[in-house]
Amino acid sequence: MQPTYFNKPILIVGLGISGLAAARFLLTQKALVWAIDQNKDKLRKRSDIQILESQGLQFVAEKDLPPLETFLLVVTSPGVPLTHPVLQLAQAKNIKILGEIELAFRSLRNKLIGITGTNGKTTVTLLLTHLLNYAGIPAKAVGNVGEPLSAEITCSSETVLVVELSSFQLDTLQSRQLDMGVILNITPDHLDRYASMEDYALSKMKIKSCIKEGAPLYMEEKAFQNYGFLQANFPCHLYGYSHNCHLMSDQQHLFLNKNIDSILPVEYRGTKSHKLENLMAAYGLCREMGIDATLFWEGVSTFNTPPHRIEKVAIFKDVSYYNDSKGTNIDAVMRAIEAIEGPIILIAGGVDKGTDFSPWISAFANKVKHICVIGQATEKLDRTLSKSFNVVRCQNMHDAVKHASSLAYPGDNVLLSPGCASYDMFENYAHRGKTFREAVNALASIQNT
């Protein structure tokens, strides 16, 4: 039975994309919706907020809220830490706290597939969605990519919803609604919000408690080896390169339950790559959905990788320029460095997320020639890396592209892969990538005249 919110007072903390979607849904249910946001004065000027206010949304300052005991529940946005004073007080008063995803879980009847991990979530979510549709199974990518899940509550129940789940979203999930899922990898990220890597890993592993009893969860073998011990009784289907994996590659074939299930296309043979690991994750889930190997590889051949992920944006004077703005943690940057052939001038920096950048020293050896740094993390990056690399401090993205280009020789690559969050200088990672592209194009037009 679906929950009813008619005439029930509900508080939303944070009116970002998720919070707005939750507000829209709750207003259609005739709930009494209140909302707070630290950027209230700026948001009040937006037409979409004004429309919601005309529909009954009470958007107020925190000090103007009625007593918290007034509210049936509190819906929080993923960008709001659970240490927020309002959430702490709600918890102390035993008021239910839900995330936007959990709110949607309680009203959806669709088949749901959850995708989490540190890196590759968006790519695998979009790839799996593409493959399902290619196979004739209607599917839509939602959650941390595409539309918020609560915006899809009215979609056809025949549509499979492929849900990208960040650790922040998993932190507020409670229901077992996922029909299957995958943990792609677990490497350092968001250590400004989590007390330790173990806490961050446990957040990712919480997806297991959101999967229906007996439903399959796939997990990359290295992630399980490193963090599986954190939870007793954590059954899952491992995938990787070891013979004990449920889904295994010998770099020539894919084995399922130790039997050859598919021959790898030529371009994926002979190497252990992050791209192959993402494909294996999608393969396991597609096989669970009844899609055969032939149809899978046909679908893969028609998939376009999303932008801002090791995306070649230009080549001029025999120097290639790559936009990997989505690379917001140290492991993502190392994956990008590994994927590009030839010497690299790296552009990195932004908002530090509690990161130890020292693993880059060995990972970049004999590959990275220079590092141009920008943003709040400039001092830390310079301090950590300057003894091993030529580190150039830059004022902004255009300055960084200009310096990187001046340091590049024919055959080199200029790579934006920040290893940091974007919000010190940009609206989001996409805005950062767009600015990089604009800077590269501006430089190309000057140098080609």
TrEMBL record:
GO terms for cellular component: cytoplasm. ATP binds at G117, T118, N119, G120, K121, T122, T123. SUPFAM superfamilies: MurCD N-terminal domain, MurD-like peptide ligases, catalytic domain, MurD-like peptide ligases, peptide-binding domain. Transmembrane segments: none annotated. InterPro entries: Folylpolyglutamate_synth_CS, Mur-like_cat_sf, Mur_ligase_C, Mur_ligase_C_dom_sf, Mur_ligase_cen, MurD. This is UDP-N-acetylmuramoylalanine--D-glutamate ligase. The keyword Metal-binding does not apply. It comes from Parachlamydia acanthamoebae (strain UV7). One of its GO terms (molecular function) is UDP-N-acetylmuramoylalanine-D-glutamate ligase activity. GO terms for biological process: cell division; cell wall organization; peptidoglycan biosynthetic process; regulation of cell shape. Belongs to the MurCDEF family. Pathway: Cell wall biogenesis; peptidoglycan biosynthesis. It is found in: Cytoplasm. Gene3D superfamilies: Mur ligase, C-terminal domain, Mur-like, catalytic domain, NAD(P)-binding Rossmann-like Domain.
